[in-house]
Design goal:
Length: 201
């Protein structure tokens, strides 16, 4: 009887010890998770907030710069197209087609030269330029030429007429205001001129 009781007591003692150890491990494990979770939360919170704030703060400036960059190329191409069309005595439609075509060519070229200087090979640079500027130039040309077309007498005005230039420049000003938010939205999504900035940094 004594022998049996002794084993029973030992068994009870071992069981109790095992339970106690398990409880300790569990508590330690829980503490580890709480500490780990606290550190993870601490890392994600402020850093993510600072990153978001920095990006939000730079967005309008980046968008305006990208739009101005695009506008310069568009203006050079479009004015050159108007000059050529007028010099060759073309009608309004072929002159406008040429002007829009050259606006795209010059708009793309400005970005193309920039990323080529950053060390990108020609084929990759062309892809970047197309991705960066297609939507921006399209919106800009649509707005600008729409305003010129809707301005009474502007389409028939000569290059020496103030009406032509005021309609064209007014169209570019409105196009800049319309295209900047478009570029901001695209840059925020990692598209448009965001692909150019990725190659410059």
């Amino acid at each position: 009887m004594e022998h049996t009781g002794h084993h029973s007591g030992d068994a009870h003692g071992h069981t109790g010890h095992g339970d106690h150890a398990g409880h300790g491990d569990h508590a330690g494990h829980g503490d580890h998770h709480r500490v780990h979770g606290g550190h993870a939360g601490h890392r994600a919170g402020p850093d993510a907030g600072r990153h978001h704030a920095a990006r939000a703060g730079a967005s309008w400036a980046m968008a305006a710069k990208a739009t101005l960059h695009c506008l310069t190329g568009c203006a050079v191409g479009e004015i050159l197209g108007m000059v050529i069309g007028t010099a060759l005595a073309w009608g309004n439609v072929p002159t406008m087609v040429l002007a829009i075509g050259l606006a795209f060519v010059f708009g793309y070229s400005f970005t193309l030269f920039g990323v080529r200087r950053a060390g990108l090979e020609l084929r990759a640079a062309i892809k970047v330029a197309l991705a960066a500027d297609t939507v921006s130039i399209a919106v800009m040309e649509l707005v600008d030429n729409g305003i010129v077309a809707l301005t009474p007498g502007a389409m028939d005005a000569q290059l020496s007429d103030g009406l032509f230039w005021s309609a064209l420049l007014g169209g570019f000003a409105v196009a800049f205001l319309v295209t900047t938010p478009v570029n901001k939205w695209m840059i925020g999504r990692g598209k448009g001129h965001a692909v150019v900035h990725a190659h410059h940094h």
